[in-house]
Amino acid sequence: MLPNSEHVEACFADGLGAANKKDRLFIDCSTIDPFRSGALAKQLADKGMGRFVDAPVSGGVKGASGGTLSFMVGMPSKETDPRVEQVLSKMGASIHYCGKAGAGLSAKLVNNYLLGLNNIATAEAMNMGLKLGLKPSVLGQVINSSTGKCWPSEKNNPVAGIVPGAPAENDFEGGFGIQLMLKDLGLALAAAEGAGVHLGAKDYALDIYQKVATQYPNKDFGVLFKHYEAMSK
């Protein structure tokens, strides 16, 4: 798992992908550009350098420590190469086969675009509820037993006292870093543009994450709540 497309490509440019090794398997859990990942998979296959599979992951720090991660795999099915599931099943509880090379990354970016928007909405809604005089515990119970429930509200609520062990309990230390959310958002927007997809919320989402990442670097992405809280004072 590496930070960017350039880092993954450099591994093979430096000789990792020697020829005449068709049976080798490379599983890449990085969140990178799906088009570049797919091109790398084709390049390695064409040169007989092995099978390269994109398998980005979701589930956060808790999922990693608990072995309950979800993998999105750029293969049509587990029968394409059973070795992939043998490896990933040791780390995660869910393995989704999404299609051709790069499809796992496409699925991950779609998911994280939605996650980013849900996180914005959760921060705004929690701040609104508190300003209207609702108790945090009551508001959390209402949302998480009603139609507004989402991962940021239920598992990573940005208000302390609602989700035990959430980053909000520790001044937003740990968790899913806001810089990583910003990176994934940028990748998602680039992929959407490449596919000719209109995203109506993209400009606001990108702007708010850029601002808050500058204000609160190295914090969990739930720190957006602090931004909205400060704006309402």
UniProtKB/TrEMBL annotation:
Q: Which GO terms describe its molecular function?
A: 3-hydroxyisobutyrate dehydrogenase activity; NAD binding; NADP binding
Recorded source organism is Protomyces lactucae-debilis
Specify the protein name: 3-hydroxyisobutyrate dehydrogenase
A GO biological process held by the record: L-valine catabolic process
Q: Which Pfam families match?
A: NAD_binding_11 (PF14833), NAD_binding_2 (PF03446)
Per the similarity annotation, which family is this? Belongs to the HIBADH-related family. 3-hydroxyisobutyrate dehydrogenase subfamily.
Q: Its domain of life?
A: Eukaryota
- What lineage does UniProt assign to this protein's organism? Eukaryota, Fungi, Dikarya, Ascomycota, Taphrinomycotina
Q: Which residues form the 6-phosphogluconate dehydrogenase NADP-binding domain?
A: 1-99
**EC numbers, comma separated:** 1.1.1.31
Q: What class of enzyme is it?
A: oxidoreductase
Give the record's GO CC terms. mitochondrion
Catalysed conversion reaction: 3-hydroxy-2-methylpropanoate + NAD(+) = 2-methyl-3-oxopropanoate + NADH + H(+)
In terms of InterPro entries, this protein maps to: 6-PGluconate_DH-like_C_sf, 6PGD_dom2, 6PGDH_NADP-bd, HIBADH-like_NADP-bd, NAD(P)-bd_dom_sf
Keywords in alphabetical order, please: Branched-chain amino acid catabolism, NAD, Oxidoreductase
Name the pathway. Amino-acid degradation; L-valine degradation
Domain 3-hydroxyisobutyrate dehydrogenase-like NAD-binding, residue spans = 102-220
Keyword Oxidoreductase in annotation: yes
